[in-house]
Amino acid sequence: MTMARPVQILISFWTAVLSAFSAAVYAVVPRLVLAADRLRPLFGFTWPSISGATPPADVLCHFTRYEAVAFAMRLRSRHLQTRAFGVNPDGLDAYVQKHVIADTDRMHQWMGAGTGVIYACPHYGPFLLGALLVATQGSNASPSHVFYDPAESVPDNHRFDEFFQQFGDRLSVLHNEPRDLVRALRALKNKQCLSIMFDVVQRPTDSMFVPFFDRLYPAMGGAAYLSLQSGAPIIPAYVVPDCGRKARVAFGQPIEPGNFTNADRNTNIHDMTRMLFADFQKQLSRAPWHWIYWGNVGAASRFDRSVMYGHAALVAEISRRCLATPILLEKSPLLRRLVEARPESGPGASHDGPSTDTP
Amino acid sequence: MSALSDFRLRRRIASLVRDWRRGSPLPLIILPSTPASLQFASQLSRDMPVAVIGSPRLLADWAPSFCVQARSPLDVWRDVKMHKQLPYAVISYPDQLIGVDPSFYRVAIGDSNCAFSIVEMMLLMKFRAPAYLGKVRFCGRGEKAASTLTLHGFAGEVPAGLPKGEFDEWMLRLMEPVIECSRNPHDGWLARDVFALKVDGNFEKMLKIRLLEIEALLRMGDDLPEPVPLYRELQVELQSLRRKPQLLTG
Predict the structure, then answer these.
(1) B81 and B140 share a domain?
(2) Could you list the residue range(s) of the whole structural domain that residue A26 is in?
(3) Which residues from B are below 8 Å from A332, CB to CB?
(4) Could you tell me if residue B99 is inside a domain?
(5) Among chain A residues, CA nearest to B206
(6) What are residue A174's phi and psi, to 5 degrees?
């Protein structure tokens, strides 16, 4: 007993020292990186790219010192994410209260509206802390839910499955498969909240394409479908690293299903998903460093933005794609009619702009 | 074994850089996607001007610290076509490139057809640049899989205006390192799963993606001030076409 007391004091002391050291590193390293970046022209070194690709050149050109800022930001995100994996069920509320800054009043307001809430969280910054924030909104009687791809399609998700399962009845894990989609819908109808990762598609052939950074980007309509079926709004939520080893959750513009009243459900799903990605694009235009899937944007097919403003440009863009895959014209008479009747003049008709990724 | 620790590769890089400084034409290098070949490309790009043709998404996944931005065949072709000689060495990873448009040429390999980009052939026909093929030898399995890379000069000059039979032959010769990897896919070959999309049956997937893209464009047409009824009809037709299990044969 007499020996145990000094050992405890020693352990507490070193824990406090390590914690202070870690806080200092968290605060100082990004500043050091940015300061060192000023010396880059002299020494010609490059920053390592951690966790994800850089944006394509046409996006990258809008951001000065992208690599250094991304490196600094991602070091912070990685640190926060690693620490978040150490949270246990007993310490969840205290941890979130201490390390996550969010407008909880608005969250309570959405939850109190009587429809359930869908938080659309991309793989952006230390997104795990966003999931923990959602977990604190749940209880044993009315759990929160996280919805993402199963470990069979993304092996790394096994780690998240194991982590989330420890929160038991308070947070349930739902996977992107029909049975869990029904469960998610039931949960929303019971006025519970759901966090959904919407920015990555495993099977592009089962997806839809939405405009995103002048490209046609594959997107899943799951969030929009659930919203339309349940009446729950979609709230875009972006988690960014903040000062003092904290993460800040920034909410985007809520997307209310009641505003989409087209008779065709698929059109509503597409329009809602498009709006969700437009909100995400706004956030990325402000702070692109936190997203890890920029490589998918680089790989997506570009299109001429003027298709949004004129028929001629739209038909020219479609024609270009059909000329690259002539078999589609054979299979679709209406497509052939559209392409063959296209106006020879007008905006975009003779456009030689962005093309597919091959000569 | 890493490219950097491989003495022969370091010598090869030194010799390529020496040739470039002497003013010799810059080469085209065709490599299969392996950790060793990525390290080789990364090292070479530090020592001389290089363009890498491959998939940016895949390279970001396989080699996050890869220091060159991968470019599409079209991008490189547009950039070089006005020059008399290649303005930079071109390193191509044909096993990463997937497409269904006419710039992809289908070559019979065994019982099936495989689609390869014709950009390498076009570069050779236009510039008659020296070409090197990277051959890999694998050892170990699973996490311990490793590979060694050797560069072999490509003999012969590709003449312009080839008849189909001869074109196939040249294509097969150029793609030999990649085809060799596909014959006995090893854990260390990074493009193992991606290559499957280049094979005939998977063409369907690419066509369906193209249909989805056209549908998305037509939906943008709904926002235009004067709606065109044909767009809506066409969307319905494309949706039913996309739902067919076999688009090419159905």
Answers:
(1) yes
(2) 9-77
(3) 234, 237-238, 241
(4) yes
(5) A205
(6) -120, 135
pLDDT for A146: 96
What's the rounded Cα separation, in Å, for the pair A203 and A205? Answer: 5
| A-B contacts at Cβ under 8 angstroms | 157
Nearest to A328 among B97, B117, B207 (CB): B207
Residues B155 and B228 in one domain: no
Token pair belonging to A113: 């509206």
Q: Coil, strand, or helix at residue A246? A: strand
Residue with tokens 């076509």: B81
Domain assignment present for residue A91? The answer is: yes
Say how far apart CA B139 and CA B4 lie, in whole Å: 18
Domain of B218 in residue numbering reads as 203-243
Scanning every residue of chain A, which has its alpha carbon at the shortest distance from the alpha carbon of B213? A209
Instruction: Please answer yes or no on whether B211 and A328 come within 8 Å at the CB atom.
Output: yes
Q: What is the pTM of this model?
A: 0.72
| CA B129 – CA A82 distance, rounded (Å) | 49
A131-171 residue pLDDT tens: 999 999 999 899 999 999 999 888 889 999 999 999 988 99
Query: Do residue B178 and residue B207 come from a single domain?
Result: no
Same domain, A101 and A70: no
Residue B231 lies in a domain: yes
Is residue B248 domain-resident? no
DSSP A124: B
* ipTM entry: 0.83
> Which of A54, A274, A331 minimises the CB distance to B247?
A331
Nearest to B74 among A54, A337, A356 (CB): A356
Site from A58, A292, A357 to mutate, B interface, most B CB atoms within 10 angstroms: A357
Work out the minimum CA distance from B236 to partner chain A, whole angstroms.
10
Maximum C-alpha span of chain A: 93
Side-chain-side CA neighbours of residue A331 (13 Å): 21
